[in-house]
Amino acid sequence: MGFKENLKSELAYSGMLVKELAALSGINKRTIDNYLNTHNCIPSADAAVRIAGALGVTVEYLITGEELNERNNPPLSPDPKVVLKNIETLNKRDRKIVLNLIKSLRDMEESEKKG
Length: 115
Fold this sequence. Notes:
This protein is mainly alpha-helical and 115 residues long. The protein has seven helices and no strands. Helix 1 (3-14) packs parallel to helix 6 and helix 2 (18-25) packs across helix 4 (45-55). The longest helix has 23 residues, at 92-114. The N and C termini lie far apart (37 Å). The model has no long low-confidence stretch (mean pLDDT 86).
């Protein structure tokens, strides 16, 4: 994925609107729209730093889809990112329930594969 796709993904993950990103980054909304809708439209380094900062990600992630410390792990798709974002807001008891549910689902899937 390229800058355009990673930017779209991060906007979806964060739930942020383009106009909110524009306000937070100080980049004109129309310029951000161009990054999102124009093929191979890459921002300047300064603009990329401001956009990444507003989204809470690195410039490298926006450009490559990878973090420096996660070179061997594929970037998360939007669904797992939403789960992670929401699980962080839960209290300790509810987080444990969700984690146990995920483990149970994974165990059931593995059991079904074994036949």
